[in-house]
Write a structure and sequence with these properties.
- This protein has 277 residues and is of the alpha+beta class.
- It folds into two domains: 102 residues, Sandwich (Immunoglobulin-like), CATH 2.60.40; 126 residues, Roll (Nuclear Transport Factor 2, Chain: A), CATH 3.10.450.50.
- Strand 4 and strand 5 form a beta hairpin.
- Keywords: Membrane, Transmembrane, Transmembrane helix.
- Pfam families: YhfM.
- InterPro entries: YhfM-like_dom (IPR058780).
């Protein structure tokens, strides 16, 4: 009986030590920044927490996250955060139930944050960042220059030079975000009249004029929204996706456009636009 008692005490001690290890808080601060892309932080966007509860929320989010299988192709994150010597890219939004992160330098491996911890991170970010949830809504908001639609299309010079409308990538699932990002890039390159970057968004077999010397589209997307669900199918040799959107050109009436995307099955394959109808 005495031996059993000693064993029981030993088990309790081990469990207590394990609990202390799992639920420890190792760092004394967490630093968060808004991101422009995977490597560039937005200027003057740094947020810092030193209180124990906030630091604990970020540490637990990392410690108890679930690693997703395989590799992912994902749009740029709205945030990054640093705990001690470790940095992470963070995808989180008030419109998306779960948060996800990726270790800096380990592109393609994604971790999903528990819902309860994701809610704590959302609360912290919403209190510290007045633009929380709008990170991907204005892609490259400080775009220089303007396209060349006719002056009559706009009611004022401010409307003509203002940045175009973009889809909020944070409102879409991990699988859908690369598609939405391509739509946003297409809108961006149309606005900037960046012909080379515009053409690079398309598959080699896409039905577009690759010279586009004189026929490059000259309009700005002034409103855009996804109309219906996003369909992703696996074909024999590739993946194909279809996204229908409603968009306005130069403040005109909205009309429907259908984007068709394709991606090969190679490990490093990326989504490209196959057609826009």
């Amino acid at each position: 009986m005495k031996k059993g008692f000693i064993v029981g005490i030993g088990v309790i001690a081990v469990l207590a030590a394990l609990s202390l290890f799992l639920f420890r808080v190792s760092e004394d601060k967490v630093v968060v920044q808004r991101m422009v892309d995977f490597e560039t932080a937005e200027l003057n966007s740094q947020m810092e927490w030193t209180d124990r509860d906030a630091v604990r929320s970020f540490e637990y989010a990392v410690r108890f996250a679930k690693r997703e299988p395989g590799t992912v192709d994902i749009a740029a994150p709205p945030y990054s955060f640093t705990l001690g010597d470790n940095s992470y890219l963070l995808w989180i939004s008030p419109d998306y139930e779960l948060g996800q992160f990726m270790k800096a330098g380990q592109t393609g491996t994604l971790y999903t944050v528990r819902q309860s911890l994701a809610e704590k991170l959302k609360k912290l970010l919403s209190q510290a960042d007045s633009r929380f949830g709008k990170a991907a809504g204005t892609l490259d908001s400080e775009v220089e220059g303007s396209p060349a639609p006719s002056d009559e299309a706009f009611s004022s010079p401010d409307e003509r030079s203002a940045a175009p409308a973009y889809l909020d990538e944070s409102k879409f699932s991990v699988e859908e975000r690369p598609l939405i990002h391509l739509i946003n890039l297409r809108i961006k390159y149309l606005f900037e009249e960046d012909q080379e970057s515009f053409i690079a968004l398309y598959t080699e077999s896409a039905p577009i004029d690759r010279t586009l010397a004189e026929d490059f589209p000259r309009f700005k997307i002034t409103s855009v929204e996804v109309d219906g669900g996003i369909v992703i199918n696996e074909q024999r040799s590739l993946f194909e996706a279809v996204v229908q959107v409603k968009e306005s050109k130069d403040f005109g009436e909205p009309s429907s456009s259908v984007y068709v995307f394709q991606k090969g099955k190679d490990e490093d394959a990326e989504w490209l636009i196959a057609d826009v109808d």
